[in-house]
């Protein structure tokens, strides 16, 4: 039996900003509504008073003569002239057809809250290849939109936008370079969760149905309502194999792409009709059960035998409750793939102008942009890392489990996506970030018997580098560009993957 220490419960969310709209515009911003039924069947008295964060959505317009003269753009340039809006911190551009590309250059300049100083023009990465597979249930739902990468600009209250099409794009067989329905998305990530009080596990009435499901998926690694999953040494971490659900499965089976989806709406809690009837098992009992399961597994099963020897120490992981996820935004239920054969490393291309104290806000902004603006079922990445080396839980479903993400178009099945907050085309990733990447992959890949220094075979679901159905040999720790023709994760971060592989293997004891 191994002990577990956890932080305390999540408190109620802070109120959203309600500053007035400051000036008229060509198109008034619309605040994106939450999807009907996103809230669980929790009595109104038990729900948070308000939900933090909001999204303003403004259609782009063809710039007039005066605007074109000021910014030097062509006649077909779209954008927005300078205008005041409600406060926001993250910006992106979306359009109607998720399969269409924006072939051009998108730039924004923003005015900082408080100082009133305008930034210079900043590029928004127009190609966002971190997304769901187009043939997946997530894509077939009909909600997906095309989207740029999000850009973190900090607290701002005014913006100017220009989107210039490529000069020769309209002569290409694909047709127009600017897709239909271009809209500017301005995301306010809301206020950080209040500091946790005490060190007890949350009681069910403190959690909404979605919060309960998300937190339950991390049992027995942490109690309900925990804001972090604690670090463990290597021997104790081996019991996490049971939480991964790998017992009885071999890691040398052919790659599988069939996904299993929990559609109960409660993330595996279909037998819980009412929160008041929930009986919470003691965490110590669950830990003993997980350890017993690992010890009693078939020694001939490679996934358990190899994993038992080579699971790296579990690093500290900030949970979704810890960074303040609004669980009512995502779709109910969780989607799982068969196992985790590979880790794809990304950068968010959201810029490096954030402090470590703002990391949770950046993640909430990306989460809201992925779900509300882009139409995804949840945050796309399985994990996120910041410049100080902190590790954050991404898509809900359990950090030890094989949660199906939306991160590497064509290779989301049987893999996990790890995104580093920032842009690393010309900026070196901090040493703390590379160390965190090694720690996370040593632990999570070890649960599934994967060697960080090895290779694996995945089957492409279709992309611009490999046709659908192609079996592709990849490094177990790969960059996004290894599976898709893209600059992600940036040359400087990509160049550090070799060091991360070596460090991860060493942490596994190889």
From TrEMBL:
Keyword Signal annotated: yes
Domain of life assignment: Bacteria
Name of the protein in its database record: Peptidoglycan recognition protein family domain-containing protein
Entry-linked InterPro entries: Amidase/PGRP_sf (IPR036505), Amidase_domain (IPR002502), PGRP (IPR015510), PGRP_domain_met/bac (IPR006619)
Domain Peptidoglycan recognition protein family span(s) in chain numbering: 315-463
SUPFAM superfamilies tied to this protein: N-acetylmuramoyl-L-alanine amidase-like
Record flagged with keyword Cytoplasm: no
Signal sequence range: 1-29
Alphabetical keyword list: Signal
Biased composition (Low complexity): 24-33, 188-206
Cross-referenced Pfam families: Amidase_2
Disordered as annotated region, ranges: 24-58, 115-148, 166-214, 243-275, 290-311
UniProt similarity note: Belongs to the N-acetylmuramoyl-L-alanine amidase 2 family.
């Amino acid at each position: 039996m191994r002990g577990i220490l956890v932080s305390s419960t999540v408190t109620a969310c802070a109120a959203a900003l309600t500053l007035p709209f400051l000036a008229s515009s060509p198109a008034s911003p619309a605040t994106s509504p939450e999807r009907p039924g996103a809230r669980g069947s929790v009595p109104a008295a038990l729900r948070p008073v308000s939900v933090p964060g909001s999204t303003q959505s403004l259609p782009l317009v063809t710039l007039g003569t005066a605007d074109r003269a000021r910014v030097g753009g062509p006649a077909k340039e779209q954008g927005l002239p300078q205008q005041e809006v409600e406060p926001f911190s993250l910006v992106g551009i979306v359009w109607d057809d998720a399969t269409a590309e924006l072939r051009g250059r998108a730039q924004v300049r923003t005015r900082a809250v408080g100082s009133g100083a305008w930034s210079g023009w900043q590029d928004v990465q127009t190609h966002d290849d971190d997304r769901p597979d187009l043939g997946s249930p997530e894509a077939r739902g009909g909600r997906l939109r095309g989207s740029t990468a999000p850009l973190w600009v900090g607290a701002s209250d005014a913006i100017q936008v220009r989107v210039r099409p490529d000069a020769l794009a309209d002569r290409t067989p694909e047709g127009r370079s600017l897709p239909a329905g271009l809209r500017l998305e301005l995301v306010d990530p809301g206020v950080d969760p209040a500091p946790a009080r005490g060190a007890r596990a949350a009681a069910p009435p403190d959690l909404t149905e979605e919060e309960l499901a998300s937190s339950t998926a991390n049992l027995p690694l942490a109690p309900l309502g925990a804001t972090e999953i604690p670090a463990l040494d290597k021997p104790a971490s081996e019991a996490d194999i049971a939480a991964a659900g790998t017992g009885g499965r071999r890691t040398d089976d052919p790659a599988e792409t069939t996904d299993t989806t929990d559609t109960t709406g409660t993330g595996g809690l279909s037998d819980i009709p009412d929160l008041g009837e929930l009986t919470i098992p003691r965490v110590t009992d669950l830990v003993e059960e997980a350890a017993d399961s690992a010890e009693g597994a078939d020694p001939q099963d490679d996934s358990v035998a190899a994993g038992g020897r080579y699971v790296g120490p579990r690093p500290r992981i900030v949970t979704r409750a810890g960074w303040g996820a609004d669980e009512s935004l995502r779709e109910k239920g969780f989607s799982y793939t068969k196992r985790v054969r590979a880790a794809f490393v990304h950068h968010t291309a959201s810029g490096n102008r954030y402090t470590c104290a703002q990391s949770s806000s950046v993640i909430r902004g990306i989460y809201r942009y992925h779900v509300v603006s882009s139409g995804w079922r949840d945050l796309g990445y399985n994990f996120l890392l910041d410049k100080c080396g902190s590790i954050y839980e991404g898509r809900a479903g359990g950090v030890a489990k094989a949660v199906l993400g939306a991160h590497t178009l064509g290779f989301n099945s049987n893999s996990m996506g790890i995104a580093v907050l920032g842009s690393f085309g010309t900026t070196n990733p901090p040493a703390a970030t590379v160390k965190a990447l090694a720690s996370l992959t040593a632990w999570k890949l070890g649960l599934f018997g994967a060697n960080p220094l090895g290779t694996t075979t995945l089957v492409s679901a279709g992309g611009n580098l490999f046709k659908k159905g192609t079996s592709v040999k990849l490094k177990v720790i790969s960059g996004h560009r290894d599976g898709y023709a893209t600059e992600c994760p940036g040359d400087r971060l990509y160049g550090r993957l070799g060091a991360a592989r070596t460090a991860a293997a060493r942490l596994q004891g190889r």
